[in-house]
Design goal:
Blueprint lengths: L2 H21 L7 E4 L5 H13 L6 E4 L6 H17 L6 E7 L6 H10 L6 E7 L3 H5 L17 H9 L13 H5 L3 H18 L5 E2 L1 H11 L5
Length: 224
C-alpha cells in the first residue's frame, strides 16, 4: 500500500470517528472544564454534571494536570488546540484554580483575559481556595483568611468548613450530593462575596464558582 493510500485511509477513519462523536452530542455547547485532579473540585463538578444529566460528550471535566494556574492553563490550551485541529473545537474552556500560594496566579489571570477567541477561555477562581465555595453553602463570611502560624489561608477555610462537615478532606467524593439542597444559598452568597470584595478592592475571600454552576444549570435549560 502506497503512502498516499495510507494517508487517505487514515483521514477517512478520522472523519468517520469525528462524525460518530458529533452524533452522540446534545444540541448545546461543547465545554471543557480543567482543574487539578487530586482535589475535591473535579469530583464536585462530575457529580453536578451527573445530577443535571448533562451529556458527557458535550461537557468534559479533566483533572489530569498539576494544581498551579500555569499548568492548568497550559493543559487546557493543549487540549483545546488539539481538538480544534481535529475540527471539533470546544465552545468554552473553564480553567478552575485557587489563589492559595501560587506565584503565577496574577500572571495567568491577565493572560486568560487576552486569549483569543475572546470569551472562550474563562478563569473560575477561588480565594484562598475552593473550600470557600463549599463554606458558602452554610454561611456567609467576608472575613479574610490569612496565613496564621503554620496554617495557610486555605487551612483556615477548611477549619471553618469542618464545623459543618467534620470529616471533610481534600479529594473527598459525594460533596455535591451532600450540599445540593443548599446550592441556591451558595450562589447568592458567592455573588454577595464577590461584589463585596470588588467594592473593598481585595479578593480575599471570593469565588467565581457560582458563575460556572449557574452556567451548567442554564446549559441544561434548568434553574438552580
Amino acid at each position: 500500500m502506497g503512502c498516499d493510500d495510507l494517508h487517505h485511509k487514515r483521514k477517512a477513519k478520522s472523519e468517520r470517528d469525528l462524525a460518530r462523536r458529533k452524533t452522540r452530542r446534545a444540541p448545546y455547547e461543547r465545554v471543557l472544564i480543567v482543574c487539578e485532579g487530586s482535589k475535591t473540585e473535579p469530583n464536585y463538578l462530575r457529580e453536578l454534571i451527573d445530577h443535571l444529566k448533562l451529556n458527557t460528550a458535550n461537557v468534559a471535566v479533566d483533572g489530569d494536570c498539576d494544581s498551579s494556574p500555569d499548568r492548568i492553563l497550559q493543559y487546557a490550551k493543549s487540549r483545546y488546540y488539539k481538538e480544534k485541529k481535529l475540527g471539533d473545537s470546544f465552545d468554552k474552556v473553564y480553567c478552575v484554580f485557587d489563589r492559595d500560594t501560587h506565584d503565577t496566579y496574577e500572571k495567568i489571570l491577565a493572560y486568560i483575559a487576552k486569549i483569543r477567541p475572546k470569551k472562550t477561555f474563562i478563569a473560575i477562581t477561588s480565594v484562598p481556595c475552593f473550600e470557600y465555595w463549599l463554606l458558602l453553602h452554610f454561611d456567609f463570611t467576608a472575613r479574610p483568611f490569612m496565613v496564621a502560624g503554620n496554617k495557610s489561608g486555605c487551612d483556615r477555610v477548611i477549619d471553618e468548613l469542618r464545623k459543618y462537615i467534620p470529616e471533610y478532606n481534600k479529594g473527598d467524593r459525594d460533596i455535591f450530593n451532600q450540599l445540593m439542597e443548599q446550592t441556591n444559598r451558595a450562589i447568592a452568597n458567592g455573588k454577595r462575596a464577590f461584589q463585596q470584595a470588588s467594592d473593598d478592592g481585595h479578593d480575599n475571600p471570593s469565588t467565581l464558582m457560582h458563575e460556572l454552576v449557574e452556567y451548567l444549570y442554564k446549559l441544561k435549560g434548568e434553574n438552580v
